[in-house]
Prior knowledge:
By secondary structure, the protein is mainly α. The chain has 5 helices and 4 strands, in the order αααββαββα. Strands 2-1-4-3 form a 4-stranded mixed beta sheet. Strand 3 and strand 4 (about 230) form a beta hairpin.
Amino acid sequence: xxxxxxxxxxxxxxxxxxxxxxxxxxxxxxxxxxxxxxxxxxxxxxxxxxxxxxxxxxxxxxxxxxxxxxxxxxxxxxxxxxxxxxxxxxxxxxxxxxxxxxxxxxxxxxxxxxxxxxxxxxxxxxxxxxxxxxxxxxxxxxxxxxxxxxxxxxxxxxxxxxxxxxxxxxxxxxxxxxxxxxxxxxxxxxxxxxxxxxxxxxxxxxxxxxxxxxxxxxxxxxxxxxxxxxxxxxxxx
Length: 237
């Protein structure tokens, strides 16, 4: 049983090491995803600005169509002035022309505003695109570094997993079942050292008779308080 307890203690060490490596890997994957999200956000903002330009272009086109229509109206009205016979009709047409010219001035001002807005947004897009190129380069370098670290961690995990498989062969199936259940229940820690009369898992004092039994290392003994498997480190070593 001493060898089995030693294997169990070693298995716990291996599993905790794998847990740590998995945690580091998860953190790196999270960092990688954050970098991807940062790129996606930058691209989405550029796309949104381009949509603004498209909308402004459509609005400018509608204003230019209205402007052309008003200019046609003025041309027709001015041609009609030559044919007018009465003062009253002349005044009415002149009023129409004056109103159309006022509207044209307003349309031209609105078109100019649209042009200025489009130019401003296009300048912003150009800057964002330049920033995006730089960001893509930085992210690519960071992603490569992250990937290298992930691969190194995966190599460590694979090595520990192989050792784990060999260690498990020494441990009875019933003990492995209990160990796995405790790992799930106790945040990954199923085997703990008993030291100076205490369980190092929950720091509770162990009954003297139970503590003395641990020195014999002839059975799987659990803490009466936290139910973790107890080992005397010097005994299993």
